[in-house]
Design goal:
Helix 1 crosses helix 2 and helix 1 crosses helix 3. This protein has three helices and seven strands, in the order E-E-E-E-H-E-H-H-E-E. With about 130 residues, it is α+β, with helices and mostly antiparallel strands. The chain has one domain: Winged helix-like DNA-binding domain superfamily/Winged helix DNA-binding domain (Arc Repressor Mutant, subunit A), CATH 1.10.10.10. A hairpin with a 4-residue loop joins strand 2 and strand 3.
Length: about 130
């Protein structure tokens, strides 16, 4: 975890992270996070509002060089999203930028079909065509 931030209270909209207390809140609800999940959420909160590469997140949390074949960041983001959704249903805070990384949006966005803000499936979107 990023040493300079360990004793601070970090906020991003309805999210609050207190690394020194090993505590993260979504609204007023505590999140049950592992040490890695807390470190990853902390890294995202510190970089809120901007797209962050998997390599940057990996280096911040695992403190070693990123390997392109490693899916650890993706797995942990999915776990954090699930826990955030349990605490604040229907709001998506962490957005995927396919092929690059993630962005934490402090205000969150309402989710629709398939759990994505745009309502599309995770794999592809077939545009509607006119007859």
């Amino acid at each position: 975890m990023e040493a300079a931030m360990r004793n601070q209270v970090l906020r991003a909209g309805a999210l609050e992270v207190r690394p020194a207390e090993f505590l993260a809140l979504a609204g007023d609800r505590p999140l049950s996070l592992t040490a890695r999940e807390l470190a990853l959420l902390t890294a995202l909160v510190l970089r809120q509002g901007r797209i962050v590469s998997r390599a940057e997140l990996y280096a911040a949390v695992w403190e070693e060089p990123y390997r392109k074949t490693d899916r650890s960041v993706d797995v942990y983001v999915a776990k954090i999203r699930h826990k955030l959704d349990e605490a604040l249903p229907g709001v998506r805070f962490i957005h995927t930028h396919f092929g690059f990384g993630y962005r934490l949006e402090p205000e969150g966005q309402p989710t629709r079909a398939h759990g994505r803000p745009d309502g599309h499936s995770h794999r592809f979107h077939i545009p509607e065509t006119s007859p």
